[in-house]
Specification:
- There is one protein chain.
- The protein is mainly α.
- The protein has one domain (23-129).
- The protein has 6 helices and no strands.
- It has helices at 5-11, 29-32, 43-48, 58-75, 91-106, 115-123.
- α4 (58-75) runs parallel beside α5.
- The radius of gyration is 17 Å and the shape is globular.
């Protein structure tokens, strides 16, 4: 975002969620950004967050995501998981994504929703998301 982004989005009809129209959802490189463990270009970020230096296998990524999901559930926290389909080109990667999706879908403790619904929910919360 830059200084004109909010005005541009408001001009094009994005809903107002707080005083200036935006809710900022937490962004966690370590937990939900599934490109981080998969690309050598992110070696420095993996080191910064105390992760393995080498690229994760699909099984290692699944285990790491399950740990992040469990931690978010236990804390009553927020976690968004972003998969980049162009990085998941093997059957093993797609199987891992399916397992993570099943875990989220089948857990009665997890609310999974489109980002616009999440933003509306966050707007009703405390200053934590603004």
């Amino acid at each position: 975002m830059n200084t004109g982004t909010k005005e541009f989005l408001q001009l094009h009809g994005f809903s107002d969620y707080d005083d200036d129209g935006f809710v900022v959802l937490p962004f966690h490189w370590k937990g939900g950004r599934c490109a981080l463990p998969l690309r050598r270009v992110f070696d420095h970020l993996r080191a910064k967050y105390g992760l393995k230096e080498r690229v994760f296998s699909p099984q290692e990524l699944q285990e790491a995501l399950f740990n992040e999901i469990d931690a978010a559930v236990q804390a009553g926290g927020f976690l968004d998981i972003l998969f980049h389909p162009f990085l998941h080109t093997s059957n093993a990667h797609w199987s891992m994504i399916e397992e993570v999706a099943k875990r989220v879908k089948n857990s009665p403790e997890i609310w999974c929703a489109p980002l616009d619904e999440v933003a509306q929910w966050a707007a009703k919360k405390s200053e934590q998301f603004r």
